[in-house]
Design a protein that fits this description.
Layout: H1 2-19, H2 25-37, H3 45-52, H4 56-64, H5 68-91, H6 95-101, E1 104-113, E2 123-127, E3 132-146, E4 149-158, H7 168-185, E5 195-197, H8 204-213, E6 217-221, E7 227-230, E8 233-236, H9 237-243, E9 257-264, E10 268-277, E11 280-288, H10 293-303, H11 305-316, H12 326-351, H13 355-362, H14 366-376
Parallel strand pairs: 1-5, 5-6
Antiparallel strand pairs: 1-3, 2-3, 3-4, 6-11, 7-8, 9-10, 10-11
């Protein structure tokens, strides 16, 4: 295991300097130490400093030196390095392997409840889970799922203040363009892969933007109040759900489905798929090139990977355990968690253990952490 972690750490060092050429070796060592700490159940600088006997003030000073634009550039660059390597490896495989891995881009946001008064980006957001407005941060992410591996391509903390470019749709467009620029520079075209959204993001502007960028497979979960015309009948999706007859014997589908060509006064022409999940009828809107029912279900199954990523970040890596002041500190507290997540994914890929197996095997092993730290850091008490 020690060799696998050292190999992953070297990969991270290279990615740090590639993504942020002006990064000092001192700062790179601090980021690497804090990222590696997540393998051993150490989720903030205080815990890392206590475990290794180093000065926590030194760690906080190093983090404070990171600027906002550096965090944004670093997170996109490091994650893209992982993703580009994984995509090229998948594209070198057979068509059947590529189909099974089903490379999919997903977009979603989550709330990180925070009740402090001095932290940045804290506003009141509606929580679907708690069915009420809560105070905290809203984090927007673009992820890439390749088989069972979920990689965060870009992370943005949404603000409710400032200029007119801070709303979530505009933030997403900026984030997506940043990701596309990085991948285009490496000769990898993300536009050939499907992109998925939940119903909150559905809009004509979004679809037109994605089509103009070159995306050919766009999937959006349908809301019950969307009005659709199909088979000569115009009604809300909630009404269509009551009358549509689902077929249980469709090729490649493990659940009853029915596929229609529909027209919406909001979205225009589209492919509409009805299917059942846990006894409830749901709908999926498809824009761009038409897809078969089995293809739509296979792609949409990948979308839940972004929920899994949020669960890892908030529960397994204790997102709320780290709080830094000011805007750059806010991105730092999220960025360290993302780097820790990527570190575990890299070790998981090397050892062929699952995310949780890696954490269970290494959690609490302070001796191994000290040995690995000695390879890469100059620790001053």
């Amino acid at each position: 295991m020690q060799d696998h972690i050292i190999k992953a750490a070297k990969f991270f060092q290279s990615a740090f300097y590639t993504s942020a050429p002006k990064m000092t070796s001192k700062l790179a060592e601090t980021l690497l130490l804090l990222s590696t700490g997540h393998l051993f159940g150490l989720y903030n600088p205080n815990q890392v400093a206590a475990a290794l006997g180093v000065s926590r003030n030194k760690l906080y000073r190093d983090l404070k030196a990171m600027r906002l634009y550096q965090w944004k550039s670093l997170l996109v660059g490091v994650a893209s390095t992982f993703a580009i390597e994984a995509i090229r490896q998948t594209e070198s495989k057979s068509a059947s392997t590529q189909s099974r891995r089903c490379i999919t881009i997903s977009v979603d946001d989550t709330n990180d409840p925070r009740y402090a008064k001095t932290l940045s980006y804290c506003y009141h957001w509606w929580s679907t889970q708690q069915k009420q407005a809560i105070k905290g941060r809203n984090i927007l992410a673009i992820t890439l799922k390749i088989g069972d591996v979920i990689l965060p391509l870009n992370i943005r903390i949404v603000s409710k203040q400032g200029r007119g470019n801070t709303d979530k749709p505009t933030c997403f467009q900026t984030m997506l363009q940043e990701v596309l620029d990085v991948f285009d520079a490496q000769g990898v075209d993300l536009r050939t892969y499907p992109i998925t959204f939940d119903s909150w993001y559905g809009s004509k502007v979004l679809i037109e933007t994605l089509l103009d960028l070159g995306f050919t497979h766009i999937l959006i979960h349908g809301k019950s109040n969307y009005v659709m015309e199909m088979d000569g009948k115009t009604a809300k999706l909630s009404a269509h759900k009551k009358t549509v007859k689902l077929l249980a014997d469709q090729w490649g589908c493990d659940k009853p489905v029915q596929r229609f060509r529909a027209k919406s006064p909001t979205f225009g022409e589209l492919v509409l798929l009805f299917f059942t999940t846990h006894g409830k009828t749901q709908t999926m809107m498809v824009f761009g090139k038409p897809l078969r029912s089995a293809e739509i279900l296979h792609i949409w199954a990948q979308h839940h990977g972004i929920e899994q990523f949020w669960r890892h970040l908030k529960t397994d890596l204790c997102l709320s355990a780290m709080s830094l002041q000011h805007r750059n500190g806010t991105y730092g507290s999220v960025g360290i968690k993302v780097l820790g997540y990527l570190m575990i994914q890299q070790v998981s890929r090397s050892t062929r253990l699952t995310f949780h197996q890696v954490k269970l095997q290494l959690s609490g092993d302070r001796q191994l952490l000290s040995v690995i730290s000695a390879h890469f850091h100059e620790t001053n008490p």
